[in-house]
Amino acid sequence: KRLLPAALTNQLPKSSKNRSLHHLPTIFFMNIKPSELSDETMEVLDLFDDEIQFFDISFDETVKSYAISVWVYRDGEWAEDGMTVGNIDHLTGRIAVRLTETSCDLYTIDESGHVKYSFPTLETQFDESMGIGGTKIDRETPIELNKEIPIWFKIGTITNSMKAMDITDDFRNAECDAGIAITLTASDKIVE
């Protein structure tokens, strides 16, 4: 029997609290959130000047594979510049993302070690930007099967104003002149 966290259970209508929770969508059970790290680890990570973030991911048994995509905004449009895919052999895991204005490193981490995927030279136009802003997942965020969700994105503009955005906003709608985004998609298909 699956149980919801108390915070979610309290948000259900009173009539739902006494019934079986099997009718609820899996969105409540799959999530990504910032990893809780020790103070010592956080001090070391401060050396990276907010360029690296660790995330804990929980999937359910419907997820067979995942894709992490790197998107870049150039010449007036967003284009997928890279992707890493893999089949799921654990229902929980950890990833780390190191994101700068011109590169991205992705790490998948489990009990046997880690694997690094690197995109060392992404052609962005941040060097022309007057302002640069960004947002990343900073709270537990639901994962929906076969739906891309942004993990982290940065945008730049050559104007002197920028609209504030939340990680739940579609980065493709950002008014920008430069951009980089990392997304996650959990799939019910096995990668061949």
Explain the overall architecture.
- The protein contains three helices and eleven strands; from the N terminus they run ααβαββββββββββ.
- The strands form two sheets. Strands 7-6-5-2-1-9 form a six-stranded antiparallel sheet, with no helix packed on it. A five-stranded antiparallel sheet has the order 4-3-11-10-8, with no helix packed on it.
- It has about 190 residues and is mostly beta strands.
- β6 and β7 (about 115-120) form a beta hairpin.
- About 10% of the residues lie in helices and about 40% in strands.
- The protein has helices spanning about 5-10, 15, 40-45; strands at about 30-35, 50-60, 65-75, 75-85, 90-100, 105-110, 115-120, 130-135, 140, 150-155, 180-185.
- The radius of gyration is 18 Å and the shape is globular.
Secondary-structure blueprint:
Blueprint: H1 6-9, H2 14-17, E1 31-34, H3 39-45, E2 52-58, E3 65-74, E4 77-87, E5 92-99, E6 104-110, E7 113-119, E8 131-136, E9 141-142, E10 149-157, E11 178-187
Antiparallel strand pairs: 1-2, 1-9, 2-5, 3-4, 3-11, 5-6, 6-7, 8-10, 10-11
Kindly summarize this structure in a few lines.
The chain is mainly beta and 192 residues long. Helices cover 8% and strands 42% of the residues. It is globular, with a radius of gyration of 18 Å.
Task: Summarize model confidence as the mean pLDDT.
Answer: 82
| Helical stretch tally | 3
**String of helices and strands:** HHEHEEEEEEEEEE
Spans where pLDDT lies below 50 across 5 or more residues: 1-28
The largest sheet has its strands arranged as 7-6-5-2-1-9
The percentage of residues in β strands lies in 35-45%
Q: What is the molecular shape?
A: globular
Helix content estimate:
under 10%
| Major β-sheet annotation | 6 strands, antiparallel
